[in-house]
Design goal:
Layout: H1 3-31, H2 35-62, H3 66-72, H4 74-81, H5 94-108, H6 112-135, H7 145-156, H8 169-233
Length: 234
């Protein structure tokens, strides 16, 4: 099996795994689970991590140039080696955005606002979860999911009221991630909008050129007819 065939085979199963991870992680963090429920959520989280680890190893084995693939895919490595930092396990869920952009990007170009809104809400939700997981229990830190959502909204919009802010190193890493993610999201939306505009302008130019050519062909046909008529009269 080739690497391309493997990636196509596991593309949507990995999206499902990421969604399962999101549900389990949300249940664990928001519910502040303990005991049997906490163990169940943790088991699901580690199971989905094992799927991503398997995908990474298979890609590495199937890569035509393993050394180059390893060097050029540091983010894929980070997804599978950072699970011990619990909030950073949410890096796996970026797979959802990447796959949606790759598989449905063309279909969504005409609905840029819908795409941007969906990606923004997902990013805010993930950041709120990660921040709550990192900061809960620390003095003066975010203690509820609602506070996490508020912090994520004001951070991604660059408003930054300062009423909530990370006090732990892991929380600060999450803050940096959402800042970078917000900038990247703006870039993706801008590029998608520009691509859509260029496509529409190209279609308009093609239609205009086709109409112009048809008009010229019609004029040439009339000129030929007139020439033949003049020739016949002679």
């Amino acid at each position: 099996m080739t690497q391309q065939a493997w990636q196509k085979l596991v593309e949507w199963p990995l999206v499902v795994a990421a969604l399962v991870f999101l549900v389990a992680y949300s249940w664990q963090v928001i519910g502040d689970l303990q005991g049997l429920e906490g163990a169940l959520a943790e088991t699901v989280i580690w199971f989905t991590w094992a799927l991503f680890l398997t995908d990474y190893l298979v890609n590495l084995v199937l890569a035509p140039n393993r050394g180059r693939w390893f060097v050029t895919h540091p983010f894929d490595l980070a997804i599978v080696v950072l699970p011990m930092l619990r909030p950073l396990r949410l890096l796996r869920l970026v797979t959802i955005l990447a796959l949606l952009h790759r598989t449905a990007g063309a279909a969504l170009r005409g609905r840029v606002l819908l795409y941007a809104a969906g990606a923004s809400l997902l990013l805010v939700y993930l950041a709120a979860l990660a921040m709550l997981d990192a900061e809960r229990g620390e003095p003066g830190a975010i203690q509820t999911f609602g506070e996490g959502l508020w912090w994520a909204f004001v951070t991604i919009t660059t408003v930054g009221y300062g009423d909530y802010f990370p006090v732990t190193p892991t929380g600060q890493l999450v803050a940096v991630a959402i800042m970078i993610g917000g900038i990247a999201l703006i870039g993706v939306v801008t590029a998608t909008l520009a691509s859509w505009i260029v496509e529409k302008v190209g279609e308009a130019n093609d239609a205009e050129q086709a109409a112009t050519k048809a008009h010229l062909d019609e004029l040439l046909a009339e000129v030929r007819a007139l020439r033949e008529e003049v020739t016949n009269r002679r």
